[in-house]
From TrEMBL, chain A:
Signal peptide: none annotated. GO terms for cellular component: plasma membrane. The chain crosses the membrane at residues 25-44, 56-76, 88-110. Its main location: membrane. It is a multi-pass membrane protein. It holds the Pfam family COX4_pro. It comes from the Bacteria. This is Oxidase.
TrEMBL record, chain B:
The lineage of its organism: Bacteria, Bacillati, Chloroflexota, Chloroflexia, Chloroflexales. GO terms for biological process: electron transport coupled proton transport; oxidative phosphorylation; respiratory electron transport chain. Pathway: Energy metabolism; oxidative phosphorylation. Keywords: Cell membrane, Copper, Electron transport, Heme, Iron, Membrane, Metal-binding, Respiratory chain, Translocase, Transmembrane, Transmembrane helix, Transport. This is Cytochrome c oxidase subunit 1.
Length: 121, 552
């Protein structure tokens, strides 16, 4: 009786349904492989075929990388089917990553401000 | 519970027949209290090692000439000291020992949420430590605990990779502890234990855990990239390969400034417990103390550039970091004011833990305020990389974290072991430590201000007197650390039986027996009141009951 109760409880408790099918895993894996091929292809094109300006090359590489990350985080790391609290924490990690990037880039962008060497006039 | 004998069954006792069984029961335990004891022993071992390295440094500095060791050996000595003290003592100290022991007890839980991860975290700590020790035995490292590039990545010929691997592995142990605490605090509070009834030690550890899981991975990556560049020549930090040495400082301090709060926040949590208990008063401004922990955890992530004012970081970034650094001081100050207000009209008893708590407040104020000096760019240009900085961070790390660690060990010693330590010796040791500490580190403020650079072992003769004072103080400090080892050791056999609640403190950990049974509580406690629920007249009653000569 008690066991039955615990079982029912577990079902109610899962905030969302808690399962990713095997098929989905395979599809995500395939998508990741495609993205990997894209990464290598982009590098190859830049090296052998076209002059791509730096900012564009970085944007392309970053976009592919972000797509991969999103897939892994949502499906392989189960964030898609996790509780709200887990999702908040996962999102928090990215907020922190943005802090790291934005403030660090703030330094790089501002190098050479003010332009004159030595103390300000 | 009787106070004449230790409880029949507790987490320390077990019925293993042979020595190997007994050893297994400890090394494979998933009991958070036993893991805390494992951590206590191993962390204190590393503290001893770090102390030995410090002794080398201090002895060398007695004379202005470099006569005891070469510059190269000196570099390795202070690096060993820094690496061991920061990564293997201060960062794990309070969370892994006191936090592991107390978080489930204070929450009214049977254990942490992931007992096996907890054990894994201890093993990772030990493996990381082993790497660091091997690196030290086979010649050591000479980069300083900060592993700055391009020296660490390109030029240094010491065991950089080995040491970095050790720090990297230890980082995972820290992450696992943080993860465990966060889940436990969210999920395993006893019925009725709402967020605003939690002891402030729990809030502090929660804030610490956030830092541990969000910052430590960045250190891991930064260090891993040094290894990658050293071993395979991938250009990350070396300009010749298209890298940027300053990138390392950004990544390193993105972790290491928050890491100083990994060290101090749990310490502040301990102090809140001690101040309230030994003033017999509710803590003043509970919510402010709780939220200032969270504010410190968040703001602490925005100020790392104050370690880079002279690093060729842009002037603009320096100004922004300087400004935000001023903001961090606010939540720290809030805590100090609230503790002081708690003392006001309290019935203060100068027991050993309270001596440490009061010492903490004074020393932390000096350490924090000199941090503000350093956060002002114009002042920092003058004193950066001098002994002023060394004095600043020892005031916060030794005067703050170690004082709280020792205060906490004494306060919860009866809970951990079931026995009382010798109060007289306890107070004597606390005073020795306070005097020795100030004598060691106060002269360093002056030295630094006069221009004594850090990390040099040859210096102008006019600095000698201050250096000799500092070394003399360090010897006193060392005695102060050894005395507790002795009387705490003796108390394990001879100490008076403590009983469940020797201090008359509030908090769930005092409601179970000392030492607690394996699953902490015979019956899950139900919480109906706030933390520190001393009745309003408790302090007056306590003061009225005071007998001359009684320490309590
Ligand atoms: C109250 C707020 C604090 C402020 C405003 C502050 C500010 C600073 C600044 C500006 C520096 C850089 C000095 C330089 O290298 O020129 C510094 C160094 C340092 N601080 Fe603090 N600090 C504070 C609290 C703490 C705490 C609580 C700890 C540790 C528990 C700590 C540990 C350190 C360490 C280890 C260094 C030196 C790192 C190194 O270069 O090896 N600080 N602090
Ligand atoms: Cu800092």
């Amino acid at each position: 009786m008690a066991e039955q109760h615990a079982h029912a409880h577990a079902h109610h408790h899962g905030e969302k349904h808690t399962h990713i099918s095997r098929g989905t895993y395979y599809r995500v894996f395939a998508a990741l492989m495609v993205l990997m091929v894209l990464t290598v292809a982009a590098w190859w094109v830049e090296k052998n075929l076209l002059e791509i300006p730096g900012w564009l090359a970085v944007t392309i590489a970053m976009s592919i990388a972000i797509a991969k990350t999103v897939l892994i985080v949502l499906y392989f790391m189960h964030v898609k089917i996790s509780s709200r609290m887990t999702q908040v924490y996962a999102a928090g990690a990215f907020v922190w990553l943005i802090i790291l990037f934005v403030i660090t880039m703030g330094d790089y962008v501002a190098r050479g401000w003010p332009p004159q060497a030595g103390p300000l006039p | 519970m009787s106070t004449l004998s230790l409880p029949q069954s507790s987490y320390i006792r077990d019925n293993s027949r042979t020595f190997t069984d007994w050893l297994k029961s400890w090394l494979l335990t998933v009991d958070h209290k036993r893991i805390a004891i494992l951590y206590l022993l191993s962390i204190n071992f590393f503290f001893l090692l770090g102390g030995l390295a410090a002794t080398l440094v201090r002895v060398e500095l007695i004379t202005p000439q470099g006569d005891l060791m070469s510059s190269d050996v000196y570099n390795r000595a202070f690096t060993l000291h820094g690496v061991i003290m920061v990564f293997f003592f201060l960062i794990p100290s309070i969370p892994a020992v006191l936090g592991n022991f107390l978080v489930p007890l204070m929450l009214g839980a049977r254990d942490l949420a992931f007992p096996r991860l907890n054990l894994l975290s201890w093993y990772l700590y030990m493996i990381g430590g082993l790497f660091a020790l091997i690196a030290a035995v086979f010649g050591g490292v000479d980069t300083g605990w900060t592993f700055y590039t391009p020296f660490s990545s390109t030029y240094s010929n010491s065991n950089v990779v080995m040491t970095i691997t050790g720090a990297f592995i230890m980082g995972f142990s820290s992450i696992l502890t943080g993860l465990n605490f966060i889940v436990t605090i969210h999920k395993m509070r006893a019925p009725g234990l709402t967020w605003f009834r939690l002891p402030l030690f729990i809030w502090a550890n929660y804030a610490t855990s956030i830092i541990q899981i969000l910052a430590t991975p960045v250190l891991g990556i930064a260090l891993l990239l040094v290894v990658v560049e050293r071993l395979w020549g991938v250009g990350i930090y070396d300009p010749a390969l298209g890298g940027d040495p300053l990138l390392f400082q950004h990544l390193f301090w993105f972790y290491s400034h928050p890491a100083v709060y990994i060290m101090i926040l749990p310490a502040m949590g301990v102090i809140s417990e001690l101040i309230s208990t030994f003033s017999r008063k509710r803590i003043f401004g509970y919510e402010f103390i709780a939220f200032s922990s969270i504010a410190i955890a968040i703001l602490g992530f925005l100020v790392w550039g104050h370690h880079m004012f002279v690093s060729s970081q842009s002037v603009y970034a320096g100004l922004v970091f300087s400004f935000i650094t001023m903001l961090v001081a606010i939540p720290s100050a809030i805590k100090v004011f609230n503790w002081t207000a708690t003392l006001y009209k309290g019935s203060i008893s100068y027991r050993t833990p309270m001596l440490y708590a009061l010492g903490f407040i004074g020393l932390f104020v000096i350490g924090g305020l000199t941090g503000i000096f350093l956060g002002v760019t114009a002042v920092d240009l003058h004193v950066t990389d001098t002994y002023f900085v060394v004095a600043h961070f020892h005031y916060v790390m030794v005067g703050g974290t170690i004082m709280a660690y020792l205060g906490g060990i004494h306060f919860w010693w009866p809970k951990m072991t079931g026995r009382m330590y010798n109060e007289t010796w306890g107070s004597i040791a606390a005073l020795i430590i306070f005097v020795g500490f100030n004598m060691t580190f106060f002269p360093q403020f002056i030295l630094g201000y006069l221009g004594m650079p850090r990390r040099y072992h040859v210096y102008p003769p006019e600095f000698q007197i201050l250096h000799v004072m500092s070394t003399a103080g360090a010897s006193i400090l060392a005695i102060g650390f050894i005395v507790p080892l002795i009387y705490l050791g003796i108390s394990l056999r001879k100490g008076a039986i403590a009983g469940d609640n020797p201090w008359g403190a509030t908090g769930l950990e005092w409601k179970t027996s000392s030492p607690p049974p394996t699953f902490n509580f015979d019956k899950t406690p139900i919480v109906t009141e706030e933390a520190y629920a001393y009745p309003p007249e408790a302090a007056e009653r306590d003061a009225a009951a005071w007998r001359p000569g009684s320490p309590l």
